[in-house]
C-alpha cells in the first residue's frame, strides 16, 4: 500500500472542504487558500484526497466539478455517494443531500458503478432572501 503523504497544502484543502456546508469548486479552494499553493498543486491534492476516500467530486448542472467531504463509509477502495446533490440555480451552490437516495433499476446486462444525481432548483438560503 502506498504511503499517505500529509502536506500543509493537503491539510488546508481538506480542512476547507470538511468545514464547508456546500461542495467547493477548484476556483473556490484556490481563492480561499490565497498564495499557499498553485492551481496545479490544488488539482493534485484534490485527486489524492479523492483516491484516499476523503472527498468526492460532483459535476454540477453547468459542468463544473465540485468537491465535498466523504461520509465515514468511503475508503481508497470504494466510494459510497449514491445520494442526491442539490444545485441552486441562484447562488450555484452544490449541497449533498445524504438522506435522499434514489433507487435505480437498470436493464439486464447493465452494471452501474457510479452515480451522479443532480437536482436543480432554489436552495433555502436563496428562497429566504
UniProtKB/TrEMBL annotation:
SUPFAM superfamilies: Winged helix' DNA-binding domain (SSF46785). Its cofactor is Zn(2+). Zn(2+) binds at residues 88, 91, 123, 126. Pfam families: FUR. It comes from the Bacteria. InterPro entries: FUR, WH-like_DNA-bd_sf, WH_DNA-bd_sf. One of its GO terms (molecular function) is DNA-binding transcription factor activity. Keywords: Metal-binding, Zinc. Binds 1 zinc ion per subunit. This is Fur family transcriptional regulator, ferric uptake regulator. It comes from Chryseobacterium rhizoplanae. The lineage of its organism: Bacteria, Pseudomonadati, Bacteroidota, Flavobacteriia, Flavobacteriales.
